[in-house]
Amino acid sequence: MHIEILVEDSSGEKLLEAVLPKILGDRGDPHTWRTHAYKGIGRIPRNLRGKADPGKRILLDQLPRLLQGYGRTPGIDAVVVVLDSDCRDCTLFLAELKALAAGCNPLPNTLFRLAIEEVEAWYLGDRQALEQAYPNAKRDVLNRYVQDSVCNTWELLADAVYSGGSAAVKKAGWPLPGQIKHEWAQEIGPLLDPERNVSPSFTKLRDGLRCLAAKGAV
After folding, report:
1. Is there a contact between 25 and 44 (Cβ–Cβ < 8 Å)?
2. Pairing of strands 110-115, 78-84
3. What pairing do the DSSP bridges indicate for beta strands 78-84 and 2-7?
């Protein structure tokens, strides 16, 4: 089957490209996919027929148009939308996303998956991979982390692995936070083991993708 995967930023895209073959098998054997990075999450539009500027590439703003476009496109078997939950109530956020999808016609087979609170939770879910990538990571900081908790996740990871911690990253300002997140995707992503990862939100992504693939293979 072929899956289109939408993610809110380019560091998330880099991470997914590293782990998708471990979840679905080598690209084209037998499944194929394309990942599409956007420039932020945005907001669920109130008017699904409203026209967002496609040039801004803000994921939620564009999502009704994207889903309906995929629904009209032959050869696309499923769409997977990967988002950070940030500080949102996950149950309410998923309900809002599903309501948005229900208003799209035609609607492709669509799966929503949330990283709780941020995609950095998935790095922290495989401590062996993280410590292999960053042997000098501060164990005391990592030990404070409660998996998939809302705790300023990327800042905690920065405190563990970046010289000067999150305070130094924030003081430097943009583009350093984005560069650091790309580095994590590059350094930790290829080492992640989907079977070993203890992040509940990661395992939901893994299992959801495999369920889609299994249904497509029938």
Report:
1. no
2. parallel
3. parallel
Tell me which residue has tokens 């992503």: 189
Angle at 136 between CA 141 and CA 183, to 5 degrees: 90
In three-state form (DSSP H/G/I as H, E/B as E, the rest C), the secondary structure along the chain is: CEEEEEECCHHHHHHHHHHHHHHHCCCCCCCEEEEEECCCCCCCCCCCCCCCCHHHCCHHHHHHHHHHHHHCCCCCCEEEEEEECCCCCHHHHHHHHHHHHHCCCCCCCEEEEEECCCCHHHHHCCHHHHHHHCCCCCHHHHHHCCCCCCCCHHHHHHHHHCCCHHHHHHHHCCCHHHHHHHHHHHHCHHHCCCCCCCCHHHHHHHHHHHHHHHHHHC
The closest of 113, 120, 85, 94 to 205, measured between CA atoms, is: 113
**Residue 39: what residue type?**
K
pTM of the predicted model as reported, rounded to 2 decimal places: 0.94
Q: What is the pLDDT of residues 174-194, one digit of tens each?
A: 999 999 999 999 999 999 999
Q: What is the pLDDT of residues 42-71, one digit of tens each?
A: 998 876 555 656 667 899 999 999 999 999
